[in-house]
Amino acid sequence: GLPERVTIYEVGPRDGLQNEKAVVPLDVKVEFLARLAEAGLTTIEATSFVHPKWVPQLADADELLARMKPVPGVRYPVLVPNERGLDRALDRGVTEIAIFGSATETFAQRNLNRSIAGSIEMFAPVVERALKAGMRVRAYLSMCFGDPWEGPTPIEQVVAVGRELLELGCYELSLGDTIGVGTPGHVAALIAAFEERGVEAERLAVHFHDTYGQALANTLAALRCGVTVVDASAGGIGGCPYAESATGNLATEDLVWMLHGLGIETGVDLGSLARTSLWLAERLGRPSPSRVVQALA
Ligand code: HMG
Ligand code: MG
């Protein structure tokens, strides 16, 4: 069966904007966050507290949090890789963070400058301190389906690293198809493998990039397996600067069109969201890759 309601975890301001060539002005970011909440999104990943040289597009994270006006009832998690990032987030009164690991050694090295084991060591005190401070901590796992340098990622390897991240104390694990190579059968097999090792689908979220046009089909496969949290980026913007061949995330509008068509509630006003993506596309100087945004324009 399918769920009655799906929680959309909006990553446009973080995953989307981190991959824009131009640095988006702070005013535009502030307005983008406000418009997303107005469209009915209730979980909006605002930015990243990573090294500013690694992701210059989000170097204004401290200022952004100081400037934005949080809407009551909306959650604004941020990415945090290490204790320095956690300190910055705590300084800004952040209440939810996400750590981000890799299922492959090559990407761990490229994205975090450490091995898989080294990155878990880096995350452990972050999660411990964040939980003590009363934060909610999500975990991402990248390259769950394939990696541009290592090829297909063995399912057992994904499950092993994913369980380690959850065991640190994270409430949810978001399975990232960073380069968009997964297909629906692979999604079902991966979720089944997690369940066999004691991780229920309720603790999993899915994070699809649409490089090969499989993101919606993969999402439907995940919903059929019991997943109810889906990551998406408004207008389909995004990618990962440290992953060759990664394109934008599944577009939130494309996701909402499918879910509403299936009679699944999201709380999102599609017209309002599409207008936001058109507005942002003008500021970014290129059309939104979302088919639904284009169709509604
Ligand atoms: P490092 O160079 O190994 O860091 O980078 P370090 O611990 O050796 O520190 C070096 C210097 O950086 C120190 O300064 C630190 O204070 C400073 P110094 O003492 O030399 O003057 N520093 C910081 N400054 C500000 N904020 C910080 C911070 N950390 C250290 N947080 C590090 C290690 C993890 C920091 C680096 O590799 C990094 O920032 N990586 C982030 C890469 C990234 O953001 N990638 C994109 C997000 S992941 C993604 O998009 C995938 C996802 O969407 C899911 C999917 O699609 O699969 C989530
Ligand atoms: Mg991503």
Describe this structure in words.
The protein is of the alpha/beta class and 297 residues long. The protein is built from twelve helices and ten strands. The strands form two sheets. The protein has an eight-stranded parallel beta sheet. Strands 6-7 form a two-stranded antiparallel ribbon. Helix 2 packs antiparallel against helix 11, helix 7 packs across helix 8 and helix 8 packs parallel to helix 9. The protein is globular and about 45 Å long. The model has no long low-confidence stretch (mean pLDDT 96). The chain binds 3-hydroxy-3-methylglutaryl-coenzyme A (HMG) and magnesium ion.
Largest sheet: 8 strands, parallel
Mean pLDDT reading: 96
Structural Rg: 17 Å
Number of strands: 10
Summed up, the helix count is 12
Major sheet: arrangement of strands: 2-1-10-9-8-5-4-3
What distance lies between the first and last C-alpha atoms, to the nearest angstrom?
A: 33 Å
Strand content: 5-15%
Could you give a quick summary of the protein structure above?
The chain has 297 residues and is of the alpha/beta class.
Top keywords for this entry?
297 residues, alpha/beta, eight-stranded parallel β-sheet, two-stranded antiparallel ribbon, 10 strands, 14% strand, globular, binds 3-hydroxy-3-methylglutaryl-coenzyme A, binds magnesium ion, EC 4.1.3.4, Aldolase_TIM, PYR_CT, Hydroxymethylglutaryl-CoA lyase
